[in-house]
Amino acid sequence: MSEAVERVLPSKTIARLTPDPFVAGALNLSLDSVPQSHVSLRDPRHLFYDYMRRMGTAIDLAARAAEPITVLHLGAGALTLARYVAETRPGSRQLAVEGERGLVPFVLEEAPLPRSAAVDLIESDALDALETLAAVGSHWRARADVVVCDVYSGLETPAHLVTPAFFTAVHSILAPGGTVLVNVADDADLARSEAQIAAMSAVFPRVAMIGPSALLDGREAGNIVLLAGSDPAIVERMPSLAAAGPHPVAWRVA
Fold first, then answer.
1. Closest CA to 39 of 102, 89, 126, 114
2. Are 163 and 196 in contact (CB under 8 A)?
3. pLDDT for 188-207, tens place per residue?
4. Using CA atoms, how far apart are residues 182 and 133, in angstroms rounded to an integer?
5. Is the pTM of this model over 0.90?
């Protein structure tokens, strides 16, 4: 792909894929000019954004190296993290839920998945999809090793996805030793992170946060990754997650 391509989605949102001028074989995805995803087609292991690198490392630490896992992605974008899991953990079972209809088909036309990557797609609101997946008899109920929550409408996470009810639905999908990962784009006051943590803490006994030191110190805006679940190992793995970078980094139990 040598030049930018765009499409008007059914919602009238304009999706645009642009070649990265600095990273060969990489693309940037934006919606109405708001950056959404960066994906390297040459090397799916390359994660550009700091928060994506932290999420990738958290997935690396969630099970033995190269062991297939089951991952639910709430928010698909360019399927960057799904491509990473398919590359680093061949044979993994993955499902992506994307509320912006037509977005993933557009992305896959221009940036197809490798043949070895098995990623199913549901075009739906995240909470609606969770309620279906959590139904009694569903093969997703209590099966996900990792649930990634990265859903945005513009610059904000939709309010109905920052509630105990939402994370109760996530809990019903999560395996007993599983991990929930949430991307929070926050200001220096950490107000969005605090709202997410309050909702998560009502459901999960372990919640931790990690991000740039300047953000956790209240000096700069940026992205925080929240981790939650029932397994004590979630907190025990935090020093290793921090050591992997990017740096400077800070973390704490929420």
1. 114
2. no
3. 999 999 999 999 999 999 99
4. 19
5. yes
Rounded Cα distance between 185 and 193, Å, is 8
User: Closest by alpha carbon to 166, among 45, 49, 55, 74?
Assistant: 74
Cis preceding-peptide flag for 21 (omega within 30 of 0): no
Q: Tokens 């649930």 belong to which residue?
A: 147
Q: Which of 195, 208, 207 is nearest to 171 (CA)?
A: 207
Q: Are 222 and 42 in contact (CB under 8 A)?
A: no
Taking the C-alpha atoms of residue 187 and residue 158, their distance in angstroms, rounded to an integer, is 17
What are 23's two structure tokens?
Answer: 């990273």
CB 40 within 8 A of CB 53: no
Q: What are 155-169's pLDDT values in tens digits?
A: 799 999 999 999 999
Question: Which residue in the block uniquely carries the two structure tokens 């059914």?
Answer: 10
Rounded CA separation 159/152 (Å): 10
Helices first, then strands: H and E counts in the chain: 9, 12
Pairing type for strands 119-123 and 93-98 reads parallel
Strand, helix or coil for residue 129:
helix
Q: What average pLDDT does range 140-156 have in this prediction?
A: 93
Give the model's pLDDT for residue 145: 98
**Angstrom distance (rounded) from CA 229 to CA 11:** 34
- Long-range residue pairs from 190-194, CB within 8 A, at least 24 positions apart, any chain: 190/215, 190/216, 190/218, 190/224, 192/157, 193/224, 193/226
Cα 103 from Cα 95, distance rounded (Å): 15
Q: Rg for the chain (alpha carbons), in Å?
A: 17
